[in-house]
Amino acid sequence: MPGFELFGSAEKKEVHDVLESGILMRYGFDAMRNNHWKAKELETELQTQMQVKHAQLVSSGTAAVSVALAIAGVGSGDEVILPTFTFVASFEAVLMLGAIPVLVDIDDTLTLDITAVKKAITPKTKAIMPVHMCGGMARLKELKEICDTHNLKLIEDACQAIGGTYEGKPLGSYGDVGCFSFDFVKTITAGEGGAIITNNDEYATWADNYSDHGHDHVGSDRGAESHPFLGYNFRISELHAAVGLAQVRRLNDFIAIQKNHYTVLREALSSIPEITFRTTPEAGEENYSFLNFFLPDLETSNKAMVALKEAGIDGCFHYFNNNWHYVRKWNHLKEAKSIFPIAPQIKEALSTLENKTFEQSDHYIGRNISCLIKLSWTEDEVKLRASKMVEAIKSVL
Ligand SMILES: *Cc1c(COP(=O)(O)O)cnc(C)c1O
């Protein structure tokens, strides 16, 4: 990843189709659009590839998570359990619905710790939202069992994990709803965009309506359509969908390339006894967009990051020190900084984060280094990179 590294003739052709007709809107304008329906085609393609009944495109991954929560009935005062290691978007989406994000510790999968999830359940809990970070996945079977026992919804934030599988099922298709992002730096990019997938017919209709101001999309006169309930504009444009369509058709090729590069790097790093790797649940296969490994302690990881940088190795992240992906530095949220007044119950929930510590998460994130796997590398580049990484890390051990 990211998919933009390999933009080519397929992406250009799809975009050209849209610009030729000039219709950038996904709905309506039937007579003028030269029969191009890129958003619809991409939804069909996603249904096939993700082996689900329904896919709904939206304007971003953040919108996808918001829509997923909304159709699952998450609203004012409801609690949603999610991990401390995520992208800030998953947290924001919960807040947007007036619901309360409840952060819990991660384990060596870099996603939700099952014991921590069980402890966090209260009568207000409505959903559990695992975030399949860096192409790997949460312990979905255990999470599903918890959801079934407590009558909760399972919403998969698979924004970083398209192409990975669990029990042979595409990530995102295991829970009640799954979310993808097609933003500019994701494995599949549309520039901006996102999707939700589900097998629930009612959810699919609600997602379709909710993401377009509540339009019921019945009949052919958009202005005369009725509006069963409140909605917003989370629509994707035909131009973005066109890029996404070309990219999604190449998903399997992208994953195969990532897997090759990942395997070379992992084998090289395996020669260092102090290194351990992120745990992938037994039934899972990641999408190989990142190689995640652990060093013995925080200090070694800090030093390794410096050494990797000095060796000219880019694209490695130490999320412990990152402003966007880990709760430690989310001061703007802990202090409930907002340009508009926010609900007292949310303010209160946020304020509890101010003094909260997540020692177990620190233990894993502090030692973790996450290296992006690029699609555009040549085999020689990967080999050279592997030997440079081994040398740099050995030098600090
Ligand atoms: C990228 C991402 C999102 C949000 O996607 P956008 O398309 O950038 O809005 C949400 N969750 C995770 C885990 C992400 O990585």
What's this, in brief?
This protein has 397 residues and is α/β, with parallel strands linked by helices.
How would you describe this structure to a colleague?
The chain is globular, with a radius of gyration of 21 Å. Helix 1 (9-21) packs antiparallel against helix 8 (238-248). Strand 4 (125-128), helix 6 (140-150) and strand 5 (153-157) form a beta-alpha-beta unit. It has helices at residues 9-21, 38-50, 61-71, 88-96, 114-120, 140-150, 201-210, 238-248, 251-269, 298-310, 331-334, 344-354, 359-365, 379-396; strands spanning 54-58, 79-83, 100-104, 125-128, 153-157, 165-166, 169-170, 177-181, 194-198, 276-277, 284-285, 290-294, 316-317, 368-372. Helices cover 40% and strands 14% of the residues. The chain folds into 2 domains: 3-250, Type I PLP-dependent aspartate aminotransferase-like (Major domain) (Aspartate Aminotransferase, domain 2, 3-Layer(aba) Sandwich); 253-394, Aspartate Aminotransferase, domain 1 (Alpha-Beta Complex). With 397 residues, it is of the alpha/beta class. The structure holds pyridoxal-5'-phosphate. Pyridoxal-5'-phosphate (PLP) is lined by residues 60-62, 65, 86-87, 89-90, 131, 157, 159-160, 181, 183, 194. This is DegT/DnrJ/EryC1/StrS family aminotransferase. InterPro entries: DegT/StrS_aminotransferase, PyrdxlP-dep_Trfase, PyrdxlP-dep_Trfase_major, PyrdxlP-dep_Trfase_small. GO terms for molecular function: transaminase activity. Belongs to the DegT/DnrJ/EryC1 family.
